[in-house]
C-alpha cells in the first residue's frame, strides 16, 4: 500500500512540476520576451528543482544529509527522462506510421513516468 501512495504522490508532484514548467516558460517567453529556448530551460529547471524538493520531503521522505549529491542524481534521472521522452516521440511520430504527435507524447509520458519513478526510488532516494 505504501508503494501505491508513493506512486500517487510522485504523480501529483509531477503534475505540479508540469504546471510550473509551462507557467514559467509562458511567463518568460510571452511576458518577459525572453528567447523561447532559454524560457524553456528556465521552466524545466524550476520544475525539476520543485519536484526534487517535494519528492525529497513528501514522496520519499529522504533524510540524506548529502542533498547536493541527491539533487545531482535527481537531475540526471530527469535529463535521461527528457531524452527518453524526446526519443519515444520521435520514434512513434516520425518513424512508426506517423502516429499522431500527441498520442506519441502520451505514450512517452507514461513510459517516462515509470522510468522516473523507478530510477528515483532505486537510485536517487534509495
UniProtKB/TrEMBL annotation:
Topological type in the membrane: Multi-pass membrane protein
Its subcellular locations are: Membrane
Q: Has the keyword Hydrolase been applied to this entry? A: no
Alphabetical UniProt keywords: Membrane, Transmembrane, Transmembrane helix
Which is one Pfam family of this protein? Answer: GtrA_DPMS_TM
- Where would you find the membrane-spanning parts of this chain? 6-28, 37-54, 74-92, 104-123
Question: GtrA/DPMS transmembrane domain: from which residue to which, for each copy?
Answer: 9-125
Query: Does the keyword field hold Cytoplasm?
Result: no
Fetch the InterPro entries from UniProt.
GtrA_CellWall_Glycosyl, GtrA_DPMS_TM
The family database entries (PANTHER family) matched by this protein are listed as:
PROPHAGE BACTOPRENOL-LINKED GLUCOSE TRANSLOCASE HOMOLOG (PTHR38459)
Q: Which family does it belong to?
A: Belongs to the GtrA family.
Designated name of the protein: GtrA/DPMS transmembrane domain-containing protein
Amino acid at each position: 500500500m505504501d508503494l501505491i501512495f508513493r506512486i500517487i504522490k510522485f504523480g501529483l508532484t509531477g503534475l505540479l512540476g508540469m504546471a510550473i514548467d509551462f507557467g514559467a516558460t509562458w511567463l518568460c517567453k510571452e511576458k518577459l520576451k525572453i528567447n523561447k529556448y532559454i524560457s524553456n530551460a528556465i521552466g524545466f529547471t524550476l520544475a525539476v528543482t520543485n519536484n526534487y524538493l517535494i519528492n525529497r520531503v513528501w514522496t520519499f521522505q529522504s533524510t540524506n544529509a548529502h542533498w547536493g549529491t541527491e539533487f545531482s542524481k535527481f537531475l540526471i534521472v530527469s535529463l535521461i527522462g527528457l531524452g527518453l521522452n524526446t526519443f519515444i516521440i520521435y520514434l512513434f511520430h516520425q518513424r512508426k506510421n506517423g502516429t499522431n504527435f500527441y498520442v506519441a507524447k502520451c505514450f512517452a509520458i507514461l513510459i517516462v513516468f515509470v522510468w522516473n519513478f523507478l530510477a528515483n526510488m532505486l537510485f536517487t532516494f534509495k
